[in-house]
Amino acid sequence: MNTVEHSFFGWNSRRVVLERPCHATPEPQGAADAPDLGIGLDVSLTIGARRARLITLVDHDADDYVALVIGDVPGGHDVPVRPVEEEMLLIEGSRSDLPAEILIAVPAATIGRAVSGRRTMDSQLCMGGPVRDIVLLTGAISVTFEWCDATTTGAA
After folding, report:
1. Which residues are within 8 A (CB) of 151 and not within 5 positions of it... i.e. 6 or more apart?
2. Is residue 5 one of the residues assigned to a domain?
């Protein structure tokens, strides 16, 4: 059984340390088991004055996965991973003010306060799946993910 190192776990976020493959170009973990899984697109972009990279992971039997990597993510520690509505991916990328960030495109139905969609992404980041595979392709050493929105309750 694979175990994953978690150096940080908060009330609403988790830090995931990614295993580094031995070869220079990371390959999705499931690629050997699923020949239909592969990189569909890996393009360098400029969004505003910042470097970015658009990566798609194609699974011919299921959905395609898209990530927008903003800033200096390769070799980065504690790089935030954030789900973003598919149609808003490039717009949200241009609004990012963090030094490095990974935006994962998700269908509109799972965005916002939908805890189940965030928990699915959290599970895939920790235990493996297409989301972890696409994050591995970014070259980040560790990532952070808010699996649940931080909400405050009480009288104002």
Report:
1. none
2. no
Q: Is residue 80 part of a domain?
A: yes
- What's the whole-number mean pLDDT along residues 79-86? 91
Query: Domain residues for 46?
Result: 13-21+29-146
The CA distance from 92 to 13, in Å, is: 20
| 45, burial (CB in 10 Å: exposed 0-12, middle 13-18, buried 19+) | middle
Closest CA to 133 of 37, 14, 7: 37
Total of domains in the chain: 1
Q: Which of 137, 103, 101 is nearest to 20 (CA)?
A: 137
pLDDT tens figures, 116-153:
567 778 888 888 888 899 999 999 999 998 877 665 44
| DSSP type of residue 20 | P
The one-letter amino acid code at 113 reads R
The partner residues of 43 in beta bridges, in order of sequence, read: 54
Write down how long the chain is: 156
